[in-house]
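Dig into this one:

. . .
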Amino acid sequence: MARAVAIGSKLELTATATGCLTRKELCAAFARVNPNTQLTLQNSYNWIRGRSHPRSFSLYEDWAAVLQLPEGPHFIMSSSLEEFARVLGERFDLPQAILTPLGVEARLRLSSSELQGNDGGPWHNRALLEGSFLAFSLAWSPTQRDRLLIGSARIGSRNGVFTLRYFEQILGDHVPFEGTCSLDGRTAQAVLRCDANEALFFMTLHLPPVPGNLAAGLFAGNAVYDPDSQPTASAILFVRNHGLEEEDLRKLLGYDALEPAALARCLDALGYASSGELEAEKALLKLLKGSADKALLKLDRAALIHVAALLDKRRLLTLEKDGRMQERQAQAARL
């Protein structure tokens, strides 16, 4: 059997490529392709530290399935670290700072049209985010406080540009928010322009863990119809749509109760079979709510005006002191 080469470093590169920030996330990615995988937390610790090496070839078979590498498990096991990094860099957006010390040049950034014909496989960073999603966030509108806002999103190439299109149902209208989506290897960012009022909104997302069913991040801007126009930010979740045509997906948009049953109805429609325990629904709500006092971040204008007035008073004191000082200096100069 061929000798295993640089397994620890290869696992770390794999974690970076697949957006796994912790060893627990990396182990979960392997477990999704094989529930009996050899990559347990304890083994990952030992292998990454170089204290031991995998003894079962099944680990490399799981690894190839996670990365969808056509080179196969033998390549993962016996290739040099440089060869492995080069192949991984061709399929994932690995940072140049990681590749350079290994003597590997990052592949040229392809245009969106080129990416359509050369997407790097189903687990490529961009491919993990492409597709149709139902979006969940807390309602920003003061008239819908403590309710669930259900939107939708479609991410992919549009007019030659990788684009994020987000939709909400507002006062009976289907309102799109659209902007260019940029990826840095682990996260995605987009500045979206709202068709209803031309306002700009910012969205930043963790890339979905393999196989790409859930992306999550933050959404920031101002409520479209809010008389106070308060800057607001909240968590937003994108759940991949497996079961609905776009027309049917739009029928789910709007406001609903902030409770597991509402999410359960949506997940069932999207193609996620119910286990009856609502565990996933409760976990999604926990992501949305965060800390009880920080689920929805707003900056109140009245509070802003109050604090600004206090600062204005302080500034006036400075100007008065400066004025008195200048007057004293002028008096001294006349003497």
In short: Confidence is low (pLDDT under 50) at residues 107-123.
